[in-house]
Amino acid sequence: MKSNKIEIPGFSEIYGSIPAGSVILLLGEPGSGNDIFAIQALYNYALKNGNVAYLSADNHPNDVIDEMHAYGWKFEKVKATWKFIDAYSSSNIKEKIGKLISYAKEGYWTAIDTITKLWETLNITEIVKIIRELRGAARKGNGIHFLIAMKGEVDIKDERTIKRVADGLIEFTPLTEENIGIIRILKMRRKAGTWITIPYRITKRGIEIETAMRIL
DSSP readout, 135-165? Predict the structure, then answer.
């Protein structure tokens, strides 16, 4: 069985693994690194021959590949196990979502980039239905699934609804002038207690956890 640990340097050591079969909301402002977190985790999973399905709605898949290469993540190494679902070039978003959910049932790790983009064509009721279907698929396939969302770009009531429906919530703060941000783990399935905050940087290798600066 493949590990369900998130391969972000220092993340698992500080926080532990995200429970398999979970749908995690990654919420942050543009440039905060929430999308990088998802891509980096999926890339490292694919390097171990894990299957990945990435729904790209905000950018063309080629742009995502270019971003991967910018951090030294060679798409050619994971091409055999990584499937792009191109929702950027398609008007039939529900069909694309259906394909992602079918992959999730098969055990793929997935990402929707971004769930915020779906608000342009879907209402909150439809989006909640999608997340619940993805949760059901996650339980069956036992993978980990990311919903990348841009903070403050949709109605605050809708944002709160998505936070409630997702299994986990990880928020990313804007980076400081010293290139340091904070990851706040505010909710996680099967885990109770006080959540920690974790400082991180975005480097040429992607997100790196500042383990020496852990905030309790």
Answer: HHHHHHH--EEEEEEETTSS-HHHHHHHHHH
